[in-house]
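User: Quick one: structure for sequence A, then sequence B.

Assistant: Sequence A:
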Amino acid sequence: MKRFLPLALLCLAPFAPVSAAPANDEALPRPAQLEPDVQFWIRVYSEVSTNEGFIHDQHKLSVIYETLHFDADAPPRERAHRVDAERSRVQEILRHLASGAAAQTDEERHVRDLWGADATPARLAEAVDDVRFQLGQSDRFRAGLQRAAAWDTHIAEVLANLGLPAQIAALPHVESSFDPTAYSKVGAAGLWQFMRSTGRRFLRIDAAVDERLDPFRATEAAAQLLSYNYRLLGSWPLAITAYNHGAEGVRRAREQLGTDDIVRIVREYHSPSFGFASRNFYVSFLAALSIAQNPEKYFGPLERRSESQFHELKLTAPANTEALVRALGIDRTILRSLNPALRPGVWSGQRPVPSGYILRLPGSAANWTAEALAQRTSGPRPVTVAQLAPGRPSASAQSAPLSAAPATATATATAMASPASQVEIVPTPPSPLVADNVNTAASPYYLVQGTDTLASIAARTGVPANKLMALNSLPDSDYLSDGQRLRLAAAVPEPETVTTAATLQTAQAAVVESVEEQRAVAAASQSAERAEPVSAAQAQAEGPELVPDPVGTGSADPVDYSVGADGSIVVVAAETLGHYADWLGVPAARLRALNSLRGHSTVKMGRRVKLEFPHATRAQFEERRRDYHERLQAAYFASHRIAGSEIYIARRGDSLWSITQRNVKLPIWLLQQYNPDLDFSDLRPGTQISLPKVEDVPSL
């Protein structure tokens, strides 16, 4: 077998704090209180197929009223009618028993007995609205077990390299049934079911390439996201739940209940977005893990798909697929199956395979060299490649020449240590172009600080206030925020701004896609209560995760954009008082008076600001606030992606300004997302700061 551990893994650095969770069962507890839930999902995954299902209580999963069996050729409408009829019948029985009437029929006695000591009138009345249907999944799960073997080794190596629990390898059983071509109606794709907005943080997703559909690249991205979730949330049950529900939602649940106990969060946390799937994601994962660890117990002998043999070459120039097929003498179908990330436009010839793409070839092509391929492809459309080492080195073989590494490999082998590792970065003096705010008249940028006003900045830099507003597209002086970078000269391009026509077009498309994606999720969530698939085809469209629920988006943004119960919010990076005024439809002066802010001083990141809502509801404000950040992030990740992270130990004299200037590609809002609980205004020596490693996404 000749497979190769992608050198891109060298850029995956640890996310975890000082002491990482052990990669064993202790890291993934199976609380006794949740055991009935786990057993329910084991039955769903192993006992009933997509032609069967359970009528059950959605909160007490041990209460299964009836098992329905459908004819294999029964259409979805016929199945849905039967489900509705059986649901109504059970609800009528519950209403009858809740009225205090005695159970008279065998069916009524059966329902009463299922509830045991909990069969009080009040509890049975509550259960009326909790009757739910769950389609079986045993045939899909069995097929997933057979498919999974094709990627077992790679997944195990990726998890081990990042110090993640090996058991996380079972997660795609819940997400996609190990189907790398899986798509959901809200836009999640691939083996690990990335939404486009989250996937773009770690993967290339554009008109030519969608790495969500590449099981190898997507696995590396999923490991990064899960490591990030673990660092933010501190436990694997919460990190796994956040993979479905999003880091923001799980952080809010933890803070609201004051606990990181997964049992309490599953049982006690209530939120419109914390639906059936989010509540059941961790227990369904535990069920999938149980079956994956002993599949023969549930399914008998299985014929497993063998691991693919392939060879990888890095393209250093765009290449036409037809030219590649002719030069390599490889069947087009085989080449396409090995490179699922290449989008249809590439295979139709409308777009070339882009430069920097890691082309995967069958094992029979392992003897190809870069020179030989260059000779065979010379002509009108030459293809130039740099060959990566054939075969798959062991996980310990982590050193490789820089020239052999793919474009994403921007870190050294030290980045592959366990999550407990730290990479200490020696502070370097600020660049002369971004000198501190003492001599800003000679510098192209000025970093706004909490006490600054537009007038004070103008006086300090020698740039008139009206010119500052024009250079930075400020509608008024209230659009200043703590940590904001102000341009002082028109001739210097802003490092965080997309500057080419091609990348600008890509960024604009990313913003549109992000907005459309969020609308699709919102529209789907409106019908989530009745989104209970009754057939395999519907389950595939709804999920295709085995616990269908379109509400959970798995967003990697951990920031809580909601308004507090007292009508206040916490200021986050890239926000200004002017933004709040616009979103609320009130004068900025009113917000200044409400918060006792003098003059035109800025709002400081981390400060709590009071709001009032005479013209907009809280929900409207939250929607506008989230939309602003989604657009900001979509535009950024259209031209950048995260290639790992490293731990920086703060030194004396460090500030938010000095840290971000070590990498001008790192915006303050992204630094805050990686350190949401860190107060950058009180940065003390020895503080651990997680720094995302950002790289450019090659333009088309």
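Sequence B:
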Amino acid sequence: MAASNSCNDTDLGERVRASKDVAQILLEAFGTRFELWTYDDTWHRDTSNQEPSSVTEQSATSDERGYPEVAVLLEAKFVPNAPVVLPVLENENVVIFPVECRSGTQRAAVGFVPGKDAAHIERHARSVDLSIDRSVQLDEQRKQLDAYVEEVTTSLEELTWLRSLIEQIEYCDVSNTVESVAEGVLQPLRDLIRAESLALIPDNVAQRGNAGVGFALDRRCWSGPQKIATDAIRLLIERYGERGQTQPFINNQTAEIEAVVEGVSNFILLRVAKNDFEFGWLLALNRIEDDIVRDADLGYLPPQISEFEFGTVEATLVQAAAVMLATHARNVELFQDHADLVIGVIRSMVDALDAKDPYTCGHSDRVALMSRRIASQMDVDEQICEQLYMSGLLHDIGKIGVRDDVLGKPGKLTDEEFDQIKRHPVIGHDILKHLHQLSYALPGVLHHHESFDGTGYPHGLVGEEIPLFGRIIAVADAFDAMTSDRPYRSGMSFEKAEQIIKEGAGTQWDPQIVAAFLEASEELQAICTMFCGSAPAVDASPLRDAMSML
């Protein structure tokens, strides 16, 4: 067959052989070295891939024998689809193997194989040829399998991340800020979509930029190196934000982007919003190349342009994260609105109580602050301390149900009047028991007048039968009452009040709580100097923290 015959791609299929590998296989199969020949207008020896043979005893090469020119044989006898065996002497045969046929280039391996039986050598050659074909097919299948494994691995990573996102939604607590939730979402998402950086930009940052005092981008809202400044982010949002309002906007036009912001080759931009509620933006910057090794000798193709670009898969994952973050942000806002409403009700009740008894104005605020400080001194959990603060604020709310003339009486109370006063813990409990959000406050409200020795009211509980909130509020309440002016007496000194509480440890008050009280006495005295006008307003955060534990 003439060398000018073109390669038959249908017959060859995927049979594209690496010259070095085939030459080594033939050397091992026939015990003689095969030379590589290439057809470029004419056949000529190809020395670029020749290597010294590992076989010590070899047949001579074509240049060392007096056989006809190999180029002439190849021109006349080369077949691109199968090996050819030609007897040239009584004990010698020329074996021609097609090696490679790609883009019109023909290559062959030529060897001089000793032996009298050319038919036997031809059968052996066909067997070797079949083995090479199968090896090539296995190699191609291996590459396809590697590609499939890569695809499946990526899909599993996506599914795993989506599952973790669902779990985040399930366990999202409204006490957690959007920024803290984003911290757990952005890093795995950035790895999954192979973005150099990923950021959640709240509107107060996106709209004000670096010029907005106090509107720095929270570190928890940024995953990866912060490649561009906040003002540059604002420029991207101003330029492209309209196209990312309802669905992810992908821009892989590097030259266009760099004309707006340096250091950004491509990005995904999406609005983080839910219905009419808008929180901010999700921005993925600079797609990075896959880490898979790409080796031409192993047959891997060079990376495609699309592998350096963001696509629909990445956009879909970013959109899933945006929906989750927007939902949580909306829930936090609704919870804060609800908490603010409850706080307003509490403040109104406390103000109503102060209006009934001007002499005790600010008492509830001070007891709340002192109770929290005592609990903190005892290393009580911070959230429990905040619940205790709200309990202290509400501890005397039942006095709303006591007659004004009894509550403000300047002289000594009669037994009947004192019985009315003693009812205020139960009245307060009855007022609050229907408010599920404040259920944690009920033990402190009901039991802050119990005594450690069992002589208190309303239930005469003893020792640790008295709830912790009741025992702590009892100490704070007594100290503020003793040091405050009342209609029937002036307040006593801090030193005398502290001495009374110290002497009452183990009888009226819990000794451990008295010890914590004395350790924090300087701060508690400072709290007691607060008047009604300077009493702090109720902060929303303690109630939100307290409510989040329900």
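The longest strand covers residues 92-102. The CA atoms of residues 164 and 170 lie 10 Å apart.

User: Thanks, that's what I needed.
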